[in-house]
């Protein structure tokens, strides 16, 4: 599920007439930034007078943040950057591409959309060297390289899109004081997480808060659960087959992952309000049980954005914290991470466009945004002490240490499934239908 669906009313088309107009956020040479990477890029790049148009998803406060990073690229390269966005950026990029007036570089959070643009010949390959760099320098680098690789118009597979800025979904939120008072330890494996779930019930508590209600998007939080559990019960290759329907939705592997979710969500004693409350509880309200006294629940599995709905004044790391949604110790599937992210790709070739992709390989291109807010990266060479908060640092470390990274599966599926039948099927499942029955319904809805 795309977290941008959760944003409020989007701002209409925005543009900046060159980010270099703003001062550099952090003076060059000061602080613990990798200024060596900045100086090396500066020395090797002289593109004075060139102009680069970049189209991306960031508006409002996020636009300010991305432009603070772009200002360093401009200062080092001499390129003038014109950044723009649009409320309906997914539709706008298609319109611009088909009209022959695309931006030089686009940055988008939908790999499926980028794959379609590549197949139609609208974007250019970045080359094997860029792919090899990514494999070497990103945590779970092979996963990220595969995420940016598609089939081009010529039918050949190539690396087209460079990942920049990630989001982590494999997180379980809790209140440290509640755990401490009850004598609970953070579980390191799925076996320990299930044992803790049962222990909390035995002690008279309720382990989980789960809410699926989200207006017209009701059901999406359960799809994230299933995706995470697919990665913890099946090999990454099976997950890849599932999201393309090479593995049918009603296969035993998928039904098994749905039933794993059911172990948590369909057991009355495990969920605040009982299983019947899961579908009707708004996802924004569902973590509130963590903060009541006595606790209405002890754990809440949700992506990195959920603190936006915690009680005002909640201090992350003290009042609330999170741990990695763990893998099974006995399944030998490593440390998989479910998430999302944005990918940069070239639509009109130029020295400035190629230089921008090279810029994203520098630690400083990540560290400038890292040191502010809302940014995590799987780039292993960055100084993680620069993260703007302890929570972001811990998420960055989860990404860097991942053995497998996979993009949100429902975002990779056809819209009618990933943003339609999959959502409603999960509501039916928590309402009492069997995993096999709802999986068959999703399979029947898959576009032929």
Spans of 5+ residues with little confidence (pLDDT < 50)?
A: 1-21
The ordered string of helix (H) and strand (E) elements is EHEHEHEHHHEEEEHHHHHEEEHHHEHHH
Q: Tell me the distance between the termini.
A: 22 Å
Main beta sheet strand tally, sense and closure: 7 strands, mixed
Q: Helical content, roughly? A: 25-40%
Proportion of residues in extended strands: 5-15%
Calculate the mean pLDDT score and round it. 94
Rough shape? globular
Number of helices: 17
- The value of Rg in angstroms is 22 Å
Number of strands: 12
Main structural class: alpha/beta
Describe the structure in your own words:
The protein is of the alpha/beta class. Strands 1, 2, 3, 4, 7, 11 and 12 form a seven-stranded mixed beta sheet that branches. It has a three-stranded antiparallel beta sheet with strand order 9-8-10. The protein contains 17 helices and twelve strands. The longest helix has 17 residues, at 61-77. Helix 2 runs antiparallel to helix 13, helix 9 crosses helix 11 and helix 9 (220-233) crosses helix 16. Strand 2 (51-55), helix 2 (61-77) and strand 3 form a beta-alpha-beta unit.
Compile the SSE list and pairings:
Elements: E1 14-16, H1 35-44, E2 51-55, H2 61-77, E3 80-85, H3 89-98, E4 105-108, H4 111-119, H5 128-137, H6 141-147, E5 149-151, E6 157-159, E7 162-168, E8 171-174, H7 176-182, H8 190-202, H9 220-233, H10 236-244, H11 252-265, E9 300-301, E10 321-324, E11 336-346, H12 351-359, H13 363-370, H14 390-400, E12 404-407, H15 409-412, H16 415-430, H17 435-445
Parallel strand pairs: 2-3, 2-4, 11-12
Antiparallel strand pairs: 1-3, 4-11, 5-6, 7-11, 8-9, 8-10
Helix pairs in contact: 1-2, 2-13, 5-6, 9-11, 9-16, 16-17
């Amino acid at each position: 599920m795309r977290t941008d669906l959760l944003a409020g009313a989007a701002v209409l088309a925005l543009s900046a007439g060159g980010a270099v107009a703003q001062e550099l956020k952090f003076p060059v040479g000061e602080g613990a930034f990798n200024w060596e990477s900045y100086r090396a890029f500066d020395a090797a790049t002289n593109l004075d007078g060139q102009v680069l148009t970049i189209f991306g998803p960031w508006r409002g406060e996020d636009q300010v943040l991305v432009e603070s990073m772009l200002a360093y690229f401009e200062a080092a390269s001499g390129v003038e950057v014109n950044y723009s966005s649009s409320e309906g950026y997914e539709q706008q990029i298609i319109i611009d591409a088909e009209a022959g007036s695309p931006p030089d570089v686009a940055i988008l959070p939908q790999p499926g959309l980028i794959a379609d643009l590549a197949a139609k010949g609208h974007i250019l390959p970045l080359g094997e060297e860029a792919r090899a760099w990514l494999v070497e320098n990103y945590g779970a680098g092979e996963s990220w390289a595969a995420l940016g690789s598609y089939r081009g118009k010529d039918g050949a597979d190539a690396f087209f899109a460079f990942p920049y800025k990630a989001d982590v979904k494999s997180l379980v939120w809790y209140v440290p004081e509640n755990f401490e008072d009850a004598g609970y330890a953070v579980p390191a494996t799925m076996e320990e997480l299930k044992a803790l779930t049962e222990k909390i019930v035995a002690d008279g508590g309720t382990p989980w808060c789960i809410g699926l209600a989200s207006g017209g998007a009701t059901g999406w939080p359960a799809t994230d659960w299933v995706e995470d559990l697919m990665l913890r019960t099946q090999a990454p290759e099976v997950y890849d087959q599932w999201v393309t329907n090479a593995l049918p939705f009603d296969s035993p592997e998928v039904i098994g992952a749905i039933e794993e979710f059911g172990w948590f969500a369909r057991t009355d004693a495990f969920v605040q309000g009982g299983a019947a409350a899961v579908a009707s509880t708004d996802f924004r309200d569902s973590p509130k049980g963590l903060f009541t006294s006595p606790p209405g629940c002890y754990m809440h599995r949700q992506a990195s954005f959920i603190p936006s709905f915690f009680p005002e004044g909640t201090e992350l790391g003290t009042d609330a914290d999170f741990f990695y949604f763990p893998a099974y110790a006995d399944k030998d599937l490593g440390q998989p991470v479910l998430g999302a992210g944005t990918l940069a790709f070239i639509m009109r070739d130029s020295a400035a466009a190629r230089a921008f992709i090279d810029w994203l390989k520098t630690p400083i291109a990540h560290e400038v945004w890292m040191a502010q807010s809302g940014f995590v990266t799987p780039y292993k060479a960055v100084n993680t002490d620069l993260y703007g908060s302890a929570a972001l640092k811990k998420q960055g470390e989860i990404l860097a240490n991942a053995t497998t990274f996979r993009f949100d599966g429902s975002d990779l599926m056809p819209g009618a499934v990933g943003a339609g039948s999959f959502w409603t099927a999960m509501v039916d499942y928590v309402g009492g239908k069997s995993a096999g029955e709802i999986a068959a319904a999703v399979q029947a809805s898959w576009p032929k």
